[in-house]
Design a protein that fits this description.
This protein has 198 residues and is an alpha+beta fold. The protein folds into two domains: 111 residues; 70 residues, Alpha-Beta Plaits (2-Layer Sandwich), CATH 3.30.70. 50% of the residues lie in helices and 14% in strands. The protein has five helices and four strands, in the order αααβαββαβ. Strands 2-3-1-4 form a four-stranded antiparallel β-sheet. A hairpin with a 4-residue loop joins strand 2 and strand 3. The protein is elongated, with a radius of gyration of 23 Å. The N and C termini lie far apart (62 Å).
């Protein structure tokens, strides 16, 4: 009976751990799958991230308590059933590690999304233009890298710096190869919305 209760708590811990970082997992999954527009659909979860993390800790803490508390049954010579892998301490350890990784994901996701293959292009001063866009929907550094990656796919992009904290993206580009409207469209394709250009 104790093992069934623990299994239910483990399942709840997995769900809350994933939910706490879904807003930052979505950009990575969107880039991998090529469906970039879905990345901002989970932005609303960022408001509840702290509560979901606390809930995850409480759930997994209770699961560990259930697993480790002494059994109050009277000792007898009867055979006891060995718990299955899904009800074992090893599985609970794996789930706890998974929950820690999911909770820390927003802090490591930027490294996973960095566009290391972006080629620096040469732009003549006559064609150099810098535009700054106010963007709605970014919640973490994964959002920044998602936008940077997407804008860098355009021809003539020299440099992209995006800040989720300030809600802006600054783009240096060759105006003979692309323009502000194309950059806006590219940002909007990610699911985040340009609300104004500054």
């Amino acid at each position: 009976m104790k093992n069934n209760k623990t299994t239910k708590w483990i399942g709840a811990g997995i769900v809350t751990a994933i939910a706490s970082s879904l807003c930052c997992i979505a950009p990575l999954l969107a880039l991998i799958s090529g469906t970039t527009g879905v990345a901002s659909n989970f932005e609303w979860l960022s408001k509840y991230r702290s509560f979901l993390i606390i809930f995850t800790i409480l759930i997994l803490g209770f699961a560990w308590y259930q697993k480790l508390k002494p059994n109050k049954e009277i000792d007898c010579a009867c055979e006891t059933d060995k718990p299955s892998f899904w009800q074992s301490k090893l599985f609970l350890s794996i789930i706890t590690l998974f929950a820690i990784i999911m909770t820390l994901f927003p802090y490591i996701s930027a490294e996973l999304l960095k566009n290391k293959q972006h080629n620096t292009i040469s732009i003549s001063q006559a064609n150099l233009q810098t535009a700054t866009f106010k963007i709605k929907g970014m919640t973490c550094s994964a959002c920044e890298e998602h936008i940077n990656h997407s804008v860098n796919e355009l021809k003539g992009i020299g440099n992209v710096k995006t800040s989720y904290k300030n809600g802006i993206s600054e783009v240096r580009f060759d105006k003979s190869k692309t323009n502000i409207q194309e950059i806006k469209k590219q940002i909007d394709k990610t699911g985040y919305k340009v609300i104004e250009d500054l």
